[in-house]
Amino acid sequence: MFRNCRSARGVPDGANDANGVASTVARQRHPFNLLIKGLAIMASVAAAHAFAQSPSPAMPRDGVYDMIVGTYTGGKSEGLYVYRFDTRTGDATPVSVAKTVNPSWLVVSRDNRHVYAVNELPGDNGPATQRGNVSAFRFDPQAGQLTFVNQVSAQGNDPCYLSLSPDGRYLFVANYSVAADPGGSFAALPIRQDGSLGDAALTAHHEGSGPVKGRQDGAHVHSTVFSPDGRYLFAQDLGTDRLYAYRYAPDGDNGPVSPTDAVETALKAGSGPRHLLFSGDGRHAYLTSELAATVTVFRYRDGKLAEEQVEPLAEPGFKGAVGGSALHLSPDGRFLYVSNRGDANDISIFAVDADSGRLKRVGRQSSLGKSPREFAIDPTGRWLIVGNQNSDTAYVFRRDPQTGLLGTDPKRIDIGSPVDFKFVSPS
User: Fold this and answer.
1) Does the entry feature the keyword Isomerase, yes or no (predicted)?
2) In terms of pLDDT, which residue wins out, 36 or 427?
């Protein structure tokens, strides 16, 4: 079902099989409902440049970055934490905390002056009627201080991922939605010229399910990722085993995105796609599938993904629970790192073939804790920081840029339920 209405012009107010095979399926329509709120944003060129997402922060002269850590609250954590991270030593020094509920994913504006974080609610036991939120903060990189600006509804349950449009006009939020009603969705939030957020200009709800009971009873949008050229938005749906491609058209009559007239990408039933990552040259993409615990390599061109390779994350013969999670490329693009939760709790290390994009395993590293939901590689490529959500710890591993392997003597950070890490240059 596809329903839309004309958008107004104006500034707004306020299962574990590692051998899954993906296929590209032509569709006449996408299985979702598209709701346009009658809102759009007219952003200046200057504002667009200011808020476009930067692939890597500028290198500070002293090698010290701000590291902002998102967490789950309710236990030992209070919200967003700011550390000073010294890339020469790997030391992290706490600076400040901004109290906010379940900021499990965050993004930083290109000019480093604003931080946007989800408020992941209601969670497993919350009422389905409760919607999650997205919060905007001003950030002073030199002082390492966050100041709350405003908060808007994510227009769905359990927001878990954010992405800035390449022109900086919209912030897209993925709503995983534990509850079948309203189900998995994503929303486009206008970014005002002062960096605050407006109410959703568009909400897209997926429809469908998968074979894994309790995990795929409905749609679960887990990430929204832009193609390297900024022309397409890919929404990864764990519940329907699909990657949906949307054409980004910020000035279109139907709102900032619309379904492409070409394809959606289907994975093997029960695989549970989670996060998508494009290579630096834009010719390949990598996908983690949470339920199958795999990483898939795709060839990419003009909004279309073609499967090239599927690699399991678990060791051969592993019988415990698995949960493919985060993936990141080294700054030079030579190595791909992928985390696996469940009973595995480790990070797979793959060498990347520069021509074909294919992967070759070169190592595996324990996260030294439980549930490595997310991790990050610092901008210099010298360190990998992994958060163990269920152990209240993060570890800073020294990284060998030649072999891709991680050191055996990491530094420990004690922090409640760490789940996301972003680096900002204070200079």
Assistant:
1) yes
2) 427
